[in-house]
């Protein structure tokens, strides 16, 4: 059987109860300073989430998107153009740019890594199998990779440039948010220079 203890009623303010200054802070969300209530700024992550409405891929999602896209495009290339390596290379470029644009900021480094892997994943449908068998397919893949290295390097470079641009923008935005947050916290006479 369970016993309940009762406390005798306490007179005066309870321990842990907010004092009037804390109660005003908790209710208003800010600290009162000579006039209007100063609001605490939203965290940088919340502002970033509100700004972005584009799809965001994780590192794994980035690899899956890029690899699956290249395999499907290679199959379409085989059906419509007879496995043209030039068409495959041209289709590879927008996939690289989209992958670099859609990867979330925390996983920016993965985009230039998964792009060359996806290029190789999509090659089997258009690679010449050299007469059949696993050895012929492997030789066809190596030959296709060697002959289409320009497209591979071009797509990887495009992904690197997009990721570098996004990273620079992200760092500048965080610095600006940090400066804005410091300016809100410091009193008007002590603004940073």
Automatic annotation (TrEMBL):
Pfam families: DUF6542. The chain crosses the membrane at residues 57-74, 80-101, 108-127, 139-165. InterPro entries: DUF6542. Residues 1-52 are annotated as: Disordered. Keywords: Membrane, Transmembrane, Transmembrane helix. Residues 56-169 form the DUF6542 domain. Residues 1-14 have a biased composition (Basic residues). Residues 15-25 have a biased composition (Low complexity). The keyword Plastid does not apply. This is DUF6542 domain-containing protein. The lineage of its organism: Bacteria, Bacillati, Actinomycetota, Actinomycetes, Kitasatosporales.
């Amino acid at each position: 059987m369970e016993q309940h203890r009762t406390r005798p009623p306490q007179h005066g303010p309870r321990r842990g109860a907010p004092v009037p200054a804390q109660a005003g802070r908790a209710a208003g969300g800010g600290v009162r300073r000579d006039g209007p209530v100063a609001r605490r700024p939203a965290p940088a992550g919340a502002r970033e989430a509100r700004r972005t409405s584009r799809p965001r891929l994780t590192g794994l999602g980035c690899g899956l998107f890029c690899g699956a896209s290249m395999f499907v495009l290679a199959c379409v290339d085989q059906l419509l153009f007879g496995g043209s390596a030039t068409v495959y290379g041209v289709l590879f470029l927008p996939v690289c740019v989209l992958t670099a644009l859609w990867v979330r900021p925390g996983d920016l480094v993965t985009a230039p890594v998964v792009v060359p892997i996806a290029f190789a994943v999509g090659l089997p449908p258009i690679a010449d199998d050299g007469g059949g068998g696993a050895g012929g397919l492997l030789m066809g893949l190596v030959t296709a990779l060697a002959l289409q290295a320009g497209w591979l390097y071009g797509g990887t470079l495009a992904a690197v440039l997009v990721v570098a641009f996004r990273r620079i923008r992200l760092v500048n935005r965080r610095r600006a948010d940090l400066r804005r947050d410091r300016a809100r916290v410091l009193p008007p006479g002590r603004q940073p220079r």
